[in-house]
Inverse folding.
């Protein structure tokens, strides 16, 4: 039998048997949660970041999750599915009504919700991004994008970033760069999956010298590989790294120009950043360019049902003679209705603008707090996706994963759930529906926990 603290899934970069883990687990697991956690650990295959689990969930409503023992947490993680909060009443009603109307459709028979969703996404997407294919998850949607790129260009190579995540499927893991999803695979991944170092503005000496001095060396690396390889099908990346990292001004315009010059497509993985999370409907809209393909997922199903979408430029509709998706639930009317209703809620409640406004407020508050805090290296992000980097040396920005872990468990104990990225970045991603007073309460928890850790 595993000890209590050994059951818990670690945050990114966290050690397996830390003091912070022991202290939190020993007092956090209530009598109702403990048996279910033991059953979970016995029933499921174990994997990093997922199972065994950190706790149980009995209720999920709005910004809150609650375990079997009644402990409530504001959820600032949510696997990026909870843009409109959990259990939005309009979404629940729409799904129930659709179940009564039409619960399923074989993909070779079309239906109104699926067509309406495809038309809606085409209307929202800029430029000629108006051809759509649905999948059940973001990993699959990214692989559809890669198949389109191969078919359209006659090439198979890709360029992507180390440390990126594009899904757990074999192809998605190949173009991804996170060791957690690659290192265990025996033998080669997909051939031709080239990687470059990601933009990391907060560590770049050019950036710290000021925006006019930034040499966009990170973009030059992408250009260099495209030039040297000469036969790359696509560059695939998140428009803003979800860890989070914001690209330097001009980065994506430079990469877009390089793709055009060398015949490569540009694919934007908007699975965590899209649907308004960063204060624009598509995060790439911050940087004034249009990709050839955009991929949405996670929150598209409103935090209830799984659905993702690959949205391609109309000139890439070149795969009619073979299957590039062919998913059983490709045109599922219930998941399509969920996504369509989610888009309606985002529009009707003004959630994109709300994310921009509340995100700017949260960033300003944290930046002000960071000025006199010795263990905060950076505060960064866009909209309601932002992070606080915990360091041991503010001048040199020396990462402090042990401190970050201690702060994480202090916050969890105080009723705030989030994740740690890159070992030391408190990554905060609340629902777009969050009230200002709840956001303030969460930020107070973070600031208090940081103060207690110093």
């Amino acid at each position: 039998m595993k000890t209590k603290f050994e059951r818990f899934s670690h945050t990114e970069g966290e050690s397996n048997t830390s003091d912070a883990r022991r202290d939190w687990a020993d007092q956090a697991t209530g009598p109702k949660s403990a048996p279910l956690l033991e059953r979970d650990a016995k029933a499921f295959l174990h994997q990093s970041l997922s199972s065994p689990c950190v706790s149980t969930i009995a209720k999920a409503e709005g910004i809150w999750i609650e375990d079997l023992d009644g402990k409530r947490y504001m959820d600032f993680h949510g696997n990026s599915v909870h843009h409109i909060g959990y259990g939005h009443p309009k979404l629940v009603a729409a799904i129930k009504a659709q179940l009564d109307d039409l619960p399923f459709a074989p993909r070779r028979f079309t239906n109104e919700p699926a067509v309406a969703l495809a038309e809606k996404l085409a209307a929202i997407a800029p430029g000629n991004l108006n051809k759509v294919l649905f999948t059940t998850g973001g990993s699959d949607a990214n692989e559809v994008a890669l198949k389109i790129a191969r078919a359209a260009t006659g090439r198979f190579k890709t360029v992507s970033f180390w440390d990126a995540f594009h899904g757990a499927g074999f192809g998605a893991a190949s173009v991804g760069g996170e060791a957690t999803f690659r290192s265990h695979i025996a033998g080669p991944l997909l051939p031709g999956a080239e990687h470059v170092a990601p933009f990391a503005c907060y560590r770049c000496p050019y950036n710290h010298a000021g925006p006019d001095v930034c040499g966009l060396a990170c973009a030059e690396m992408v250009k260099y590989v495209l030039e040297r390889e000469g036969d790359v099908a696509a560059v695939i990346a998140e428009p803003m790294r979800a860890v989070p990292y914001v690209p330097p001004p001009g980065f994506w315009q430079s990469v877009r120009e390089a793709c055009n010059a060398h015949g490569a497509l540009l694919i934007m993985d908007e699975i965590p950043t899209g649907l308004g999370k960063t204060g624009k409907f598509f995060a790439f809209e911050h940087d004034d360019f249009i990709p050839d393909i955009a991929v949405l997922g996670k929150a598209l199903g409103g935090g209830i049902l799984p659905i993702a979408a690959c949205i391609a430029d109309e000139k890439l509709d070149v795969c009619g003679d073979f299957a590039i998706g062919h998913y059983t639930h490709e045109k599922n009317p219930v998941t399509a209705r969920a996504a369509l209703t989610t888009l309606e809620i985002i529009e009707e409640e003004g959630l994109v603008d709300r994310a921009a406004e509340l995100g700017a407020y949260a960033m300003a508050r944290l930046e002000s707090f960071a000025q006199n805090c010795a263990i905060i290296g950076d505060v960064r992000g866009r909209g309601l996706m932002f992070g606080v980097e915990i360091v041991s040396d503010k001048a040199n920005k020396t990462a402090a994963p042990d401190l970050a872990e201690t702060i994480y468990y202090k916050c969890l104990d105080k009723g705030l759930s989030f994740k740690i990225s890159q070992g030391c970045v408190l990554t905060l991603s609340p629902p777009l529906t969050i009230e200002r007073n709840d956001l303030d309460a969460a930020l107070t928890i973070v600031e208090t926990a940081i103060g207690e850790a110093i």
Notes: Residues 1-17 have pLDDT under 50 and may be disordered.
